[in-house]
Amino acid sequence: DIQTTQSPSVVSASVGDTITMTCRTSQAVSNYLAWFQQKPGTVPKRLIYISSSLQSGVPSRFSGSGSGTEFTLTITNLQPEDFATYYCLQHASYPRTFGQGTKVDLK
Amino acid sequence: EVQLVQSGGGLVQPGGSRRLSCEASGFTLGLFWVTWVRQGPGKGLEWVATIKQDGSEKYYVDSVKGRFTISRDNAKNSVYLQMNSLRVEDTGVYYCARERPLAPYDYWGQGTLVTVSS
């Protein structure tokens, strides 16, 4: 099974900051990596798929990159609505595995 | 409007059973793979099971193999998760989501809470 690990677990940031979080997989997954945002009590929302493709309707301040085993999600000019938990998902093979999440909170 | 509407959650005793349903509206669910994802209280997302468009392929996380069964009825535009021998650790919110190759989980159901407790 492919292990999926996110870091850091928590990012403390301010509005306007640029933040980056990382997702690493224990085996190469090509670019079969997606990112999701979840706010408390709500349904997860897909932000990025195939490592760097932006979901329609998602602001361009979100960007993804990487291939193989290391991937990043970057949020530039952080907005109040971006404080949430972010999860990566490898969908190269079964079982699918999510990272444990990175929580972005207010510094 | 594209929607996945879930039903079937609730309180169940350990060892009991429950069937979750996920019905699509606004699109033909039979054209998509469908996945169930769960989230324990205060925990992260966990992939549970996936079924191919025609039901010919099914995949499960190890912790539910032999206890949960994913199925579908394309005539009813629905996917199901039959959960047997439920354990306390199966407690959580269960989501269904549709999947296309290279583009997983673009639409999700609203989630349904399953609580396994005596």
Question: Would you write up a description of this structure?
Answer:
- The complex is a heterodimer of chains A (107) and B (118).
- Chain A is mainly β and 107 residues long.
- Chain A has no helices and 11 strands.
- Chain A is globular and about 35 Å long.
- In chain A, 32% of the residues are buried.
- Chain B has 118 residues and is mainly β.
- Chain B contains no helices and 11 strands.
- In chain B, strands 2, 4, 5, 6, 9, 10 and 11 form a 7-stranded mixed β-sheet that branches.
- In chain B, strand 7 and strand 8 (78-83) form a beta hairpin.
- The model of chain B has no long low-confidence stretch (mean pLDDT 97).
- At the A-B interface, strand 4, strand 9 and strand 10 of A face strand 5 and strand 10 of B.
Structural class of chain B: mainly beta
Order of helices and strands of chain B: EEEEEEEEEEE
Instruction: Round the Cα radius of gyration of chain A to an integer and report it.
Output: 13 Å
- Count interface residues per chain for the largest interface: A-B, 22 and 22 residues
Proportion of residues in β-strands of chain B: over 45%
In short:
Chain A is built from no helices and 11 strands.
Provide tags for this entry:
heterodimer, A: 107 residues, mainly beta, 7-stranded mixed β-sheet, 4-stranded antiparallel β-sheet, 11 strands, globular, B: 118 residues
Topology (elements, then pairings):
The complex is a heterodimer of chains A (107) and B (118).
Chain A: E1 4-7, E2 10-13, E3 19-25, E4 33-38, E5 45-49, E6 53-54, E7 62-67, E8 70-75, E9 85-90, E10 97-98, E11 102-106
Parallel strand pairs in A: 2-11
Antiparallel strand pairs in A: 1-3, 3-8, 4-5, 4-9, 5-6, 7-8, 9-10, 9-11
Chain B: E1 3-7, E2 10-12, E3 18-25, E4 33-39, E5 45-51, E6 58-60, E7 68-73, E8 78-83, E9 92-100, E10 103-108, E11 112-116
Parallel strand pairs in B: 2-11
Antiparallel strand pairs in B: 1-3, 3-8, 4-5, 4-9, 5-6, 7-8, 9-10, 9-11
